[in-house]
Amino acid sequence: MSPLPSPSAKRLGGPPSIPALVRTRVRAAVRRPARLTPEETAGRALTLRLVSLLLQYPDSELTSARAELTTVVEALPATPAAEHLARFTDWFAAQDPEALERHYVEMFDLRRKSSLYLTYYLHGDTRRRGMALLTLNQRYRAAGWDTDGGELPDHLPVVLEFAALAGPGGGEAPLRQHRRGLELIHRALTDADSPYRHVLAALLTLLPPPTEADRAAVDRLAAEGPPNEEVGLDPYGTYGEGEFAPPGTFVPPMAAPPTRVPPTPTIREGHR
Q1: pTM of the model
Q2: CB neighbour list of residue 65: distance below 8 Å, 6 or more residues apart
Q3: Could you give the CA distance from residue 46 to residue 25 in angstroms, rounded to a whole number?
Q4: pLDDT tier at 147 (50, 70, 90 boundaries)?
Q5: What does the alpha-carbon distance between residue 119 and residue 131 come to, in Å, rounded to a whole number?
Q6: Is-cis flag, bond preceding 235, omega within 30?
């Protein structure tokens, strides 16, 4: 299961209209933490959705919305995440569309250390990755979310959209579980001096600070790469010392009656 799809493959659907994006209500599938007010929760969801949009392939729909995206980012409350997003949108708005496309392909399609398929960093091309993808789909369905199968469930813009829709707690759990992969992507983009590092930095400000174990695991992952398939590997086994997966990665969520979310933004056929 390669993390490097063809650059010519189709991408996620284009962004919704910006006013619609701003007005989108967050459908909470889990209890909201008491420490966040409804306004804070909505602002956090908007930030996650903006990160999701900005990490999509810069097709004509997305590039035509650059002025509106910049306006929305400028209107965000002053936070570290907003500062990072503003740095990115300043660059994004000034670039030639074809140059943006080339840069995106180079950063996310042609470099293994900055692929946007998160389970690759935990499991590489092993059978465990298939189980992780299945578990992630189960989480989406348990929350009543249907992605329509347009993208793999571990594609970062998809994971971010789920986090925005489902809210803090269970909605953001996949981001916390893949923290080490996100750190590696940010490191790779920083090493490449890509402005996309600001988008990852904005996301990381929303997550708990990395532990020493996280930092050590990211160092090993950068040096050794993801695990390789082993003969006789049990895809349902537990992780031993030194593995990259944080605890709780394969805990299936409780099932809930499926409820279709509003179709905005849509996810059309994407590259795999």
Answers
A1: 0.73
A2: 14, 15, 17, 18
A3: 9
A4: confident
A5: 10
A6: no
